[in-house]
Amino acid sequence: MQQISSRNFLIILLVILIVMALILLYLYFLLNQPPGLPAVQSQQMQYLFSIYGYGTSEDELLYRPTDVAFDEDGNIFITDTGHARVLKFDSSGKFLRKFGKKGFGKGDLMEPVGISVSKDGQIFVADKALSKIVVFDDESGNVQSEFQVMMPIKPQIANGKLYLTTYAHVMIFNLNCEKLDEWGRRGKQVGEFDSPAGIAVDEDDNVYVSDTLNLRFQAFSKRNKLLWVRGKPAKDIKAEDRKFGLPYGVAIDDKNLLYVVDAFDSSIRVLDKKGNQIVVLGGKEGSREGQFYQPTGIAYDQNGVFAIADKFNDRVQVVRITVDANQPRK
C-alpha cells in the first residue's frame, strides 16, 4: 500500500508540474507575442522596419540598445550597450560596420549609452561607466580621441557644437572637444537636474532637456535662461499626477516639434516648442512591431522618419510619424 501511495503522489506531483509549466508557457507567449503578427500601425505612426542585429547568433544580436543617431546620409548608428559597442546600418537596415570593443583601454567601451554623429563623420559616444566621451572616425573606424567627463549620458551635435548631458549638468563643447559652457547641478529645484538622458537643440540654440529622474522636461534659452518646465519630481514613480512616466530621449524635427520618449509609459510624447503636448503615440507596452517596451533613445532623419531604441525588446524600430503641428493641444 505504501508503494502504491508513493507512486500516486509522484504521479500527482508530475501532473501539477506539467500544468504549471503549461501555464508559464502560455503566459510567456501572451506577453511575448510570436513573430508574424502584423505590425501595430496608427494614423500618425507608421511602422517601417526593425533592426535586431546583423546575424542570428547571440553575439550578433542587439542587447539592450540605449540610443540611436542618424548621419547626413541617413545611416543609423546604435549604441549596443549590452555588448559594449556601436553598430552602423544603412537607411534600409543593412549592416555596415561595428565600432569599439569592451575594455578599459583608450577607445574601449564598457557602457556606451548616448551617441551623436557630426556632419563630417565624427561619432561621439558617451560611456557612462568609464566617464568618458570616445570619438570615432566613421570613414576609418578608428578612435580619434577621448576625453573624461563625469558620468556622461547623451551627446548631441547641433549648430556646430557638441551638447552633452551628464548626471547633473548640461555642457557645451566645440567639435575639438574644448568646453565652452556648463550649467546646472544635481537637485530637484527648477533648473537643476537628475540624470538627464535626452537633449535637443533648435536653430536658435534653445536647449530642451529630459530631466529623467526628476520626471520632467525643461527648456532653456541659449543664454541658459529657463524658458519653461513640464512635469515635476514625485515622491512615488506611480503618482497619478505625474506628467511623465520616465522621460528619456528627445528629438526635434524640421517643424520644431519635440518628440520625447517616455520609457515607463512605452510612448512618444509630441510637444511644441512652448511645451504644449500635441499627442501621445504608442502607450501600450508590447513586443509586436510598432509597440515598445521601455524605449530610451530617439533620433530624427527627415520626412518624418525616426529611429527609436526599443531597449527591452532588444531592437531599434524605424517609423514614420505624421503630426499636424496645428491640431488642438492636449
Brief digest:
This protein is mainly beta.
What descriptive keywords fit this protein?
4-stranded antiparallel beta sheet, 9% helix, 330 residues, mainly beta, 1 helix
What does this structure look like?
The protein is mainly β and 330 residues long. It has 1 helix and 24 strands. It has a 4-stranded antiparallel sheet with strand order 1-24-23-22, with no helix packed on it. The chain has a 4-stranded antiparallel sheet with strand order 2-3-4-5, with no helix packed on it. Strand 15 and strand 16 form a beta hairpin. It is globular, with a radius of gyration of 22 Å. The termini are far apart. The relative contact order is 0.13.
Strand order of the largest sheet: 1-24-23-22
Q: Count every beta strand, where a strand is a DSSP E run of 2 or more residues.
A: 24
Tally of helical segments: 1
Mean pLDDT: 91
- Mind describing the biggest β-sheet? 4 strands, antiparallel
Rounded radius of gyration (Å): 22 Å
Structural class: mainly beta
Distance between the termini: 73 Å
Following the backbone from N to C, one meets helices and strands in this order, namely HEEEEEEEEEEEEEEEEEEEEEEEE
Fraction of residues in helix: under 10%
Stretches where pLDDT is under 50 for at least 5 consecutive residues are 28-34
Fraction of residues in β-strands = 35-45%
Described by the principal axes of the CA atoms, the overall outline is: globular
